[in-house]
């Protein structure tokens, strides 16, 4: 089973690229972050794309802002449900419950400005409490999405590793560490412990992507029992239509 996360940075702007990507990659599950569209605004080419069940948490909080989607390929899961969780704010989260696992797709707030930074920390705390409850129930968990935190110095290019920068602050890194403290594993880093310049997002500076001046903020965290079933991870560097690259994990279930 191939499971992807991709911050698409506007599904209407990326409709042709997304359709071509779905056709070529054929993910079993993909979480799309920052769709920037209400459900009624999802492009027809995506809404009617064959072979997938589609779930949307559209940008009702603010027009053209946030929003997530989750697509499940026909035949990949026998039974499941998908809906926003109780703690969701600003159309940032979808949760899929299947017999094998619970998958949480998230678009964590960036946190610019002190008010928005407080929102980010509260969201991460609520997300952690939700995961802790699932683990108490004995569920296997996959958390994936645009986390908007570079956890380690190795996860951000040295040119942008500036103290106090949003995405690098001690409090937000500690919040992600608390998620991992529940027992989740950062599977991309686990399988690439010393790999430098392993990035998933690049600023909109001239030639930043070509020079790989990026951050690793799109992540997949999962419980140890699921981690033992992982046969590979990847960052799809060939897909360049968004400022984020798709990230995937392959599970042998």
Automatic annotation (TrEMBL):
<feature type="binding site">
    <location>
        <position position="243"/>
    </location>
    <ligand>
        <name>Mg(2+)</name>
    </ligand>
</feature>
<comment type="similarity">
    <text>Belongs to the DNA repair enzymes AP/ExoA family.</text>
</comment>
<keyword id="KW-0479">Metal-binding</keyword>
<keyword id="KW-0255">Endonuclease</keyword>
<dbReference type="GO" id="GO:0046872">
    <property type="term" value="F:metal ion binding"/>
</dbReference>
<feature type="active site" description="Proton donor/acceptor">
    <location>
        <position position="146"/>
    </location>
</feature>
<feature type="binding site">
    <location>
        <position position="148"/>
    </location>
    <ligand>
        <name>Mg(2+)</name>
    </ligand>
</feature>
<feature type="site" description="Important for catalytic activity">
    <location>
        <position position="218"/>
    </location>
</feature>
<feature type="domain" description="Endonuclease/exonuclease/phosphatase">
    <location>
        <begin position="5"/>
        <end position="244"/>
    </location>
</feature>
<dbReference type="InterPro" id="IPR036691">
    <property type="entry name" value="Endo/exonu/phosph_ase_sf"/>
</dbReference>
<feature type="site" description="Transition state stabilizer">
    <location>
        <position position="148"/>
    </location>
</feature>
<feature type="binding site">
    <location>
        <position position="146"/>
    </location>
    <ligand>
        <name>Mg(2+)</name>
    </ligand>
</feature>
<keyword id="KW-0464">Manganese</keyword>
<dbReference type="GO" id="GO:0006281">
    <property type="term" value="P:DNA repair"/>
</dbReference>
<keyword id="KW-0540">Nuclease</keyword>
<feature type="active site">
    <location>
        <position position="107"/>
    </location>
</feature>
<dbReference type="InterPro" id="IPR005135">
    <property type="entry name" value="Endo/exonuclease/phosphatase"/>
</dbReference>
<keyword id="KW-0378">Hydrolase</keyword>
<keyword id="KW-0460">Magnesium</keyword>
<dbReference type="GO" id="GO:0008311">
    <property type="term" value="F:double-stranded DNA 3'-5' DNA exonuclease activity"/>
</dbReference>
<dbReference type="InterPro" id="IPR037493">
    <property type="entry name" value="ExoIII-like"/>
</dbReference>
<feature type="binding site">
    <location>
        <position position="7"/>
    </location>
    <ligand>
        <name>Mg(2+)</name>
    </ligand>
</feature>
<protein>
    <submittedName>
        <fullName>AP (Apurinic or apyrimidinic) endonuclease, xth family</fullName>
        <ecNumber>3.1.11.2</ecNumber>
    </submittedName>
</protein>
<feature type="binding site">
    <location>
        <position position="34"/>
    </location>
    <ligand>
        <name>Mg(2+)</name>
    </ligand>
</feature>
<feature type="active site" description="Proton acceptor">
    <location>
        <position position="244"/>
    </location>
</feature>
<feature type="binding site">
    <location>
        <position position="244"/>
    </location>
    <ligand>
        <name>Mg(2+)</name>
    </ligand>
</feature>
<dbReference type="InterPro" id="IPR004808">
    <property type="entry name" value="AP_endonuc_1"/>
</dbReference>
<feature type="site" description="Interaction with DNA substrate">
    <location>
        <position position="244"/>
    </location>
</feature>
<dbReference type="GO" id="GO:0004519">
    <property type="term" value="F:endonuclease activity"/>
</dbReference>
<dbReference type="Pfam" id="PF03372">
    <property type="entry name" value="Exo_endo_phos"/>
</dbReference>
């Amino acid at each position: 089973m191939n499971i992807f996360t991709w911050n698409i940075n506007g599904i209407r702007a990326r409709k042709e690229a997304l359709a071509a990507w779905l056709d070529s990659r054929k993910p079993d599950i993909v979480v799309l972050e920052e769709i920037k569209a209400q459900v009624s605004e999802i492009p027809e080419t995506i809404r009617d794309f064959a072979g997938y069940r589609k779930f949307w948490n559209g940008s009702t909080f603010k027009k053209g802002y946030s929003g997530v989607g989750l697509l499940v390929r026909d035949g990949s899961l026998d039974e499941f449900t998908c809906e926003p969780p109780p703690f969701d704010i600003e159309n940032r989260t979808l949760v899929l419950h299947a017999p094998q696992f619970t998958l949480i797709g998230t678009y964590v707030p960036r946190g610019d400005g002190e008010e928005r930074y407080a929102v980010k920390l509260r969201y991460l705390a609520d997300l952690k409490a939700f995961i802790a409850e699932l683990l108490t129930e004995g569920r296997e968990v996959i958390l994936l999405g645009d986390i908007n935190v570079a956890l380690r110095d190795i996860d951000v290019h040295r040119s942008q590793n500036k103290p106090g920068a949003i995405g690098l602050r001690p409090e937000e890194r500690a919040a992600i560490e608390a998620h991992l403290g529940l027992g989740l594993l950062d599977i991309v880093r686990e399988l690439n412990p010393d790999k430098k310049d392993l990035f998933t997002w690049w600023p909109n500076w001239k030639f930043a992507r070509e020079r790989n001046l990026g951050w690793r903020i799109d992540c997949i965290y999962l419980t140890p029992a699921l981690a033992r079933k992982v046969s590979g991870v990847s960052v799809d560097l060939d897909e360049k239509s968004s400022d984020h690259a798709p990230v995937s994990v392959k599970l042998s279930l």
